[in-house]
């Protein structure tokens, strides 16, 4: 099965689910990619910035502040003396050493920072070497050591400043990268929203068109059936739900046609004998009269009446009378040609319309029916048999005669047959 056929065979519910999936897919993709951006470019970057700030920048700033304090303490001691300055220096030196150890652990995986920090440590070691000379030396040596102290601590402070600047640059770069990632995510979210809206519009339009076209076909088919046109079936393929409705509607229409045909047939036939009824008699005789106005061949009408039927019915009951009517109808129909028409005219009276027949054949056809009826027997409810006879009046007709004339002539001949003793055939003379 082709992909298009598979799609067309999807149910309306599947179409809706597929449409929802198409609309949600951009959002789901955005959520997935957004999480990836957050995890790899935002979260990790922030972790780097926070790590640098808390484990590197803060100790570095503390060292810078302590360097100022140490410089002040040493200079104050050189000018004023006093054991308090020595105690303060020793405490500050321990603090610097602790902060340098903490920074060494924080930048253990960064060779560039390790190199700068190593330089800071070297200058700090020089500071520690010359400080005893400042504190314990003679005025001459103290001044010389103080100059060395100032030079080394300044160099250490400069390298700390360099390290701080690089850390700040790295933080700014991380901040910039984070902002770019957020901006990229915003653009992606906007594109996803636009795509989702576009897909939603396409999906809604497609489903709407499918439903509207199929619904219009269904309504159009229903209107055709209502107007009497039941030949063309409703052709709906999608969605399957409406296709099933159309299929059921087509089945219902066929059933209606069959029922109407049965009703039309029942309206044309006599319920007891199965012969065509009086309404069909009027139509067929009129049609035959019109046909004889065109053709040169003659036609004939035989009016056939069961003799003493009322007495038979009263004596043997209505069921036996019905059997007699069916029996006579069967005899007449079995003797008729394919081109002939047999009718139950009313009550115990029948009619036979003969087309394209010569005058000498009319009497032969009527006599054949009379004899066949006469030599048959009707089974009565008591198990006995009873014979019946019929009287027949015939009238030949060709072009230029009216319906009333031909029926009147055949009836007149029938009455003559009954008046002359029944079980006879009389052909009317025009």
UniProtKB/TrEMBL annotation:
Q: List, alphabetically, the CDD domains matched.
A: GGDEF, HAMP
Domain annotation GGDEF: ranges: 297-430
Give all residue intervals belonging to the HAMP domain: 209-261
Q: Which GO terms describe its cellular component?
A: plasma membrane
Does the entry feature the keyword GTP-binding, yes or no? no
Keywords for this protein: Coiled coil, Membrane, Transmembrane, Transmembrane helix
Spell out the protein name for this chain.
Answer: diguanylate cyclase
Origin organism is Cohaesibacter marisflavi
């Amino acid at each position: 099965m082709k992909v298009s056929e598979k799609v067309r065979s999807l149910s309306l519910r599947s179409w809706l689910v597929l449409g929802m999936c198409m609309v949600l897919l951009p959002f789901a993709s955005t959520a997935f990619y957004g999480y990836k951006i957050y995890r790899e470019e935002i979260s990790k970057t922030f972790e780097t910035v926070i790590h640098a700030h808390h484990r590197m920048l803060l100790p570095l700033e503390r060292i810078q502040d302590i360097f100022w304090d140490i410089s002040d303490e040493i200079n104050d001691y050189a000018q004023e003396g006093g054991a308090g300055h020595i105690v303060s220096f020793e405490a500050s030196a321990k603090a610097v050493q602790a902060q340098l150890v903490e920074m060494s652990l924080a930048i253990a995986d960064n060779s560039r920072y390790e190199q700068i920090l190593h330089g800071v440590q070297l200058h700090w070691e020089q500071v520690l070497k010359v400080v005893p000379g400042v504190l314990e030396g003679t005025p001459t040596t103290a001044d010389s050591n103080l100059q060395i102290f100032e030079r080394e601590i300044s160099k250490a402070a400069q390298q700390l400043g360099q390290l701080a600047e690089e850390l700040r640059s790295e933080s700014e770069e991380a901040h910039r990268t984070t902002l770019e990632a957020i901006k990229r995510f915003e653009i992606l979210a906007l594109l996803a929203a636009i795509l989702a809206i576009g897909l939603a519009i396409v999906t809604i339009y497609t489903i709407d068109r499918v439903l509207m076209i199929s619904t219009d076909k269904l309504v159009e088919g229903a209107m055709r059936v209502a107007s009497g046109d039941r030949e063309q079936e409703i052709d709906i393929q999608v969605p399957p739900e409406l296709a099933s409705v159309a299929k059921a509607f087509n089945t219902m229409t066929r059933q209606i046609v069959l029922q109407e045909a049965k009703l039309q047939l029942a309206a044309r036939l006599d319920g007891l004998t199965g012969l065509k009824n009086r309404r069909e008699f009027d139509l067929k005789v009129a049609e035959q009269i019109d046909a004889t106005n065109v053709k040169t061949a003659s036609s004939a009408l035989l009016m056939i009446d069961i003799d003493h039927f009322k007495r038979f019915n009263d004596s043997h009951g209505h069921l036996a009378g019905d059997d007699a009517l069916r029996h006579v109808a069967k005899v007449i129909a079995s003797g008729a040609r394919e081109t002939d028409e047999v009718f139950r005219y009313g009550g115990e009276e029948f009619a036979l319309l003969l087309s394209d027949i010569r005058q000498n054949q009319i009497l032969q056809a009527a006599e054949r029916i009379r004899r066949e009826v006469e030599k048959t027997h009707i089974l009565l409810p008591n198990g006995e048999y009873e014979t019946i006879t019929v009287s027949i009046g015939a009238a030949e007709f060709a072009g230029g005669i009216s319906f009333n004339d031909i029926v009147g002539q055949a009836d007149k001949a029938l009455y003559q047959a009954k008046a002359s003793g029944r079980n006879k055939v009389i052909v009317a003379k025009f």
